[in-house]
Design a protein that fits this description.
74% helix
Length: 439
């Protein structure tokens, strides 16, 4: 529940509104195509976990199959992903708060700072209730989305008018068809869809931590394709059948827009509280994860030793405070460029996600090569079509980066920053190597 709940977050609850404005109903095709490749990534991870269950990050596989440098890069790029996702989440909280007109006069950065303060304090107290809280947060998200699907299907089936219009597939054909702006916008927004699927790899790693991973992994991972079809593709198709795609707006959850259009008192408010909870949950999970990622990097010699420090509650407080400092940059962006911060940071987060998935695929390719040469024994649950599907998926991820680069201005500037990110990583590795020689 925590894993699938973690994969259903801001990218779907908030990002879908912007994506529908940009590409219309073709967003469902993007979710489907990207979802198929995500399933292949999970199958690659599943093969790795079956080979050696790991109670933690995929970084251990990068270390085993690609070496210490690769593990260092994988760990820090994973941190980049989670750190940027946290900034997306505090921005989402601020945008959700502005749904209520009472708070229109409150600057966006104030809500971002308050959200960071609340979640940061929760993470510093301890981890005793983390799993329990995240289970219920995830349950709220999944149940709310399931109720939307059920209620939306009832409205669609009974042809109940929504905002004065009869719902149905005719709303697609009457408003420009599947590609109202052409095919290129659908290609450009692939990175946003990638972000919506971020953290879905937790399904594999969470299964790897269970008591009987070799029994649980195949069932857990194979069920994901059905969840993708239901929650992601199904939600978007239902949204564009209930209201015209251009009825959804940037900065407002499309699910809230739908319930608001129904005119039923307070239902839209309840849904906005749900998506607000989802954003806070994602922020909480991200801060929890990044603090421990930094500690793991420090213990492995890939980060300053101070980041490994724990307090009396077994909280890696230095790592968490470091992440909070990064999130404060996000608060500053909400002050300087409130209208653009969501898209800018989402693009950077997508780079981190793509790098994480790429490392998983490359490790699977290396594992399969060792199995074929008889150096290691196959544990079963082979990735279907490997190694061709692994290379095809890597090609797809490369295609997403190219499309991101063509999406001016945010995407273009993000891709242009790749050499800078690489230089920072190389410089950091050089400093670590120097410190090791002097030790």
């Amino acid at each position: 529940m925590i894993a699938i709940g973690g994969a259903i977050g801001t990218g779907l609850f908030l990002g879908a509104g912007t994506r529908l404005q940009q590409a219309g109903p073709s967003l469902a095709i993007d979710y489907l195509v990207c979802g198929i490749f995500c399933f292949l990534i999970l199958r690659a991870l599943g093969e790795l976990v079956m080979y050696r269950p790991s109670a933690g990050s995929f970084v251990s596989y990068a270390r085993e199959f690609l070496g210490e440098k690769a593990a260092y890069a994988a760990g820090w790029l994973s941190f980049l992903n989670w750190a940027m996702t946290g900034i997306v989440d505090i921005t989402a909280v601020a945008l959700y708060m502005h749904f209520w007109g009472t708070f229109d006069h409150v600057p966006q950065w104030v809500f971002a700072l308050v959200a960071l303060g609340i979640v940061g304090t929760m993470n510093m107290i301890g981890v005793r209730y983390f799993g329990e809280l995240e289970f219920w947060f995830s349950l709220i998200k999944v149940v709310a989305l399931a109720l939307f699907l059920i209620f939306g299907c009832v409205v669609l089936g009974l042809k109940m008018p929504v905002a004065g219009q009869v719902p149905g597939f005719h709303l697609i054909s009457e408003n420009g068809g599947i590609f109202p702006h052409g095919i290129m916008p659908a290609l450009f927004l692939m990175q946003g869809v990638v972000f919506a699927y971020s953290a879905i790899e937790l399904v594999g790693t969470a299964a790897g931590e269970c008591a009987n991973p070799r029994e649980i992994i195949p069932r857990a991972i194979n069920s994901v394709i059905y969840r993708i079809g239901l929650f992601y593709v199904g939600s978007v198709i239902l949204l564009v059948c209930l209201l015209p795609w251009n009825a959804y707006h940037k900065g407002v959850s499309p699910f809230v827009t739908f319930f608001q259009a129904l005119g039923v008192p307070h239902v839209d408010t309840v849904m906005n509280i749900v998506v607000l909870t989802a954003a806070l949950s994602s922020l909480n999970s991200g801060l929890y994860s990044t603090g421990r990622i930094l500690r793991a990097l420090a213990l492995g010699g890939s980060a300053p030793r101070a980041l490994a420090k724990m307090n009396r509650q077994s909280v890696p407080y230095v790592g968490i405070l470091t992440t909070v400092a990064v999130y404060l940059i996000g608060v500053g962006l909400n002050y300087l460029i409130p209208a653009r911060v969501f898209e800018i940071v989402l693009n950077v987060a997508a780079l981190g996600i793509i790098s994480t998935w790429s490392f998983i695929l490359i490790c699977q390719i290396r594992l399969r090569k060792l199995v074929n040469t008889g150096e290691v024994e196959s544990a079963g649950f082979r990735m279907p079509g490997a190694p061709y599907t692994a290379w095809l998926t890597l090609g797809f991820l490369g295609f997403v980066v190219v499309m991101m680069g063509l999406d001016y201005p945010e995407g273009t500037y993000t891709v242009m920053a790749i050499p800078l990110i690489a230089a920072v990583l190389a410089g950091g590795w050089g400093l670590i190597a120097l410190a090791r020689r002097q030790a």
